[in-house]
Amino acid sequence: MPEPVTYVPTQVSPITCHLCADPTQTYLEEEVGVGNLMAALATVPVLIVLSFALPFLGRLSDRIGRKPIYWIAVVLTLITMVPAFAVMRIGTEAAVLGALFIVAVPTSFYLAVSASALPALFPTATRFGAMGIAFNLAVSLFGGTTPLICQWLIQLTGNPYMPAFYIMFFAVIAGIALVPMKETAGQPLMGSAPVVEAPEDSPIPA
Description:
This protein is mainly alpha-helical. The chain has 8 helices and no strands. The protein has helices at 12-19, 22-32, 36-64, 66-88, 93-120, 127-143, 146-157, 162-178.
């Protein structure tokens, strides 16, 4: 089984992705004062563009590795979150849309490799069950609670930038977890022999 710490980077994406959807709508309505319709529609073009970017970032990860993509995501999260919320608080339609696109940039890097990096953390014999349980628990605990925790932190501190700091906190944890994480791009899945055209091409003796 993989060390728990190596699983952390794959779980920052649910937090940022959830922030880019439902929690953002709540934040825009209650903290920025944007109307309900505008708050609901603002995330739609952002998520559409994000979905088109994922295949290209996934292909990039095949070339340079999954860890570098995660590192880019971590650095971008630390750099862009506070400016994104500062722009968002301007309150105009253009500012809100621009801020959401800024948030979507690091989110796209997380999402692009999580689907491939996650299965590689588990051996073949237990991959299906272990991945399903671990992923769904993580999404429920971290992604699903993001709106509640962010709103509670704002009420507790009076600081409207607490959602940005909350995401940055998990990005730092993800960066620490990346250090021992093994690069899995271009490698056979744990517990599986590589697929080759001829037996003599396999590094594992037949």
